Amino acid sequence: MSDGRLPRRRRWIGWTVGLVLTLLLVAVGWVAIRGIGAVSDLQRVASGASQLKKAIAEGDLEGAAPVARSIASHAESAHALTSDPVWHAFGVVPWLGPNFRAVSEVAEIADDVAADALTPLLDVAADFDLASLGFAGGTIDLAPFAQIEKPLGTASAALTSAEQRARRIDADSTLPPLAEAVGELRSSVTEAATVVGSLHGASVLLPTMLGGEGPRDYVLAMQNNAELRSSGGIIGSIALLHVENGSISLQTQASSRDFPPLDEPLPVSESTTALFEDRPGRYLQNLTSIPDFSEAGPTIAARWIGRFGGTVDGVIAVDAVVAEHLLAATGDLAFGPFTATADTVTSILLSEIYATIPDPVVQDQVFAQAASGLFAAALTGGDPKKLIGALAESAGEGRIRIWSAHEDEQAVLAASALGGIIPEDGPAATFVGVLMNDTTGAKMDYYTRASIVTAVGTCDGAPTTRVEVTWTNTAPADAAASLPLYVTGGGAYGVPAGSVGTLIAVYGPDGATPSRIDRDGSEEGVQTAMLGDRSVVQHDVVLAPGESTTITVEFQGEGAGAEFTETLTTPLIEAAEMSHGELRCGS
């Protein structure tokens, strides 16, 4: 007869199940409470980051300090809340696990960036007067660079590490809001790593490059984006800068007219010859067609030495849009019959000058006045903080490229955005790109616009990267009659007046090969070449006013389909619209 009690074994199982359920409920409550706290902390980190960026942009380092302390505190709290054993245990739970791991990784990265990058930067900023980097009588004080080099190096290393770790977060397996937050983190950390890395490179290089260990001479090549070349535009004007102990002076100025075509072209790489024949080695204007500035720089230097003699320590190439950024810092600039503001200088230099001044020789004189006036304004006027911001913005847009004849300096430059080379593919990112080179022989690229969509995935079982380029001629319908002959070219090079002729080259990931090539949905003859181990497909396009065309190239094989694929392109007057799309196979 039963006494109403469960057998001992069944009671043990019941207690065990009850204990497990209780512990599970406690654990769920534990991570829920800690998760709410961590999310709140991370939201405050994100909000603080926006405030900090605004304060730094305005030069308000006093206001930035408490914001930075708040960011560090909340980042540390979020990391602590998401790094205990219970939280990590939930990280292995199917479906839910990737979300827990992502929150933990985001919190850890935020904490490390705050402690190892933000804190050293603001510590040095508290004792560092940015105005000490300003010019006085055309001279920049080189001493402060020694003060900022070490903390910038520490911050740069921390941000580079954070960028790599952020890219490894499995955002595709997380809930949409979290995936979006991871994307924002990646974008912010990459931007910070690029800026701080460039500043660190500058702090290492500038003391010697600005003549701290002996005088230097640099060729300054000014590119005109109204006639496109791979790195921005044709070399329209060129000058020699002399620097010594931080003192900078503008020496000889010249125009492309001072460099007639060479009977015997300078040697260029096989890649350059395959894309552009021997034109870059023969014509100064075409030297910036060379995609890699580590090749273009020394060739520009050779042309200068061949014409004027002497020695050249490096080459700096800037495009016309840099003037827009600089005038925002220095104020209005008068040259020739014009008075330019930051809002109007690009239009004047790349369009209005041709309608106002029909004589190309006088145009060159006015361009020279603009260059020397802008140079003088940058040396003697303007807020140093704004000047540095203008140069940083220009560099970030790829509008400043530098080559040094000194190997140790060139090694640092080549590893930065200022080096103007196609970066190597690696775990952090894979690179594809689009190069535009004018064939109109005139200044019609003032009217061109571009949009580029990159998509990655798998098609027919093969990793695939698709690059889609839409190129548009926005010139007025009556451009042939209404625009100056110097702008339209008048058909001198086989492109009808008012139309735009462009070589559009699309290069893929390192090691991948083109699997599909079309223009507006149809196949057509193209030119193919190699840039190192990268396949390049080049279309020769002519568009009448108002016309648009879309070029699509798919790459498959090694290197293709990489999640972290970045797209590089020729700097245009109006920056290309860049986006990531969804890969649709067979479309």
What are the SSEs and their pairings?
Blueprint lengths: L7 H50 L3 H21 L3 H6 L6 H30 L8 E2 L2 E2 L3 H25 L7 H34 L6 E9 L9 E11 L2 E9 L14 H7 L2 H4 L10 H16 L5 E6 L1 H10 L2 E3 L2 E3 L4 H12 L3 H21 L3 H13 L3 E5 L2 H8 L15 E9 L9 E12 L2 E12 L5 H4 L2 H4 L11 E8 L5 E7 L7 E5 L2 E10 L4 E9 L8 E5 L7 E4 L7
Parallel strand pairs: 3-6, 10-18, 11-19
Antiparallel strand pairs: 1-2, 3-4, 4-5, 6-9, 7-8, 10-13, 11-12, 12-17, 13-16, 14-17, 15-16
Helix pairs in contact: 1-2, 1-4, 2-4, 4-5, 5-6, 10-13
Number of helices: 16
* Helix share bin: 40-55%
Overall residue-averaged pLDDT value = 84
Strand content: 15-25%
Task: Give the uncertain stretches in residue-range form.
Answer: 9-30
Going across the biggest sheet, name each strand in turn.
Answer: 5-4-3-6-9
Largest sheet: 5 strands, mixed
Rg over CA atoms, rounded to whole Å, is 28 Å
Form type = globular
3D structure, described in words:
By secondary structure, this protein is of the alpha+beta class. It has three domains: 8-209, no CATH class; 216-408, Aminopeptidase, CATH 3.40.630.190; 423-580, no CATH class. The protein is 45% helix and 22% strand. The chain is built from 16 helices and 19 strands. It has helices at 8-57, 61-81, 85-90, 97-126, 144-168, 176-209, 270-276, 279-282, 293-308, 321-330, 345-356, 360-380, 384-396, 407-414, 479-482, 485-488, and strands at 135-136, 139-140, 216-224, 234-244, 247-255, 314-319, 333-335, 338-340, 400-404, 430-438, 448-459, 462-473, 500-507, 513-519, 527-531, 534-543, 548-556, 565-569, 577-580. Strands 5-4-3-6-9 form a five-stranded mixed sheet, with helices on both faces. It has a five-stranded mixed sheet with strand order 15-16-13-10-18, with helices on one face. It has a five-stranded mixed sheet with strand order 14-17-12-11-19, with no helix packed on it. A hairpin with a 2-residue loop joins β1 (135-136) and β2. α1 (8-57) runs antiparallel to α2. Mean pLDDT is 84; it is low at 9-30.
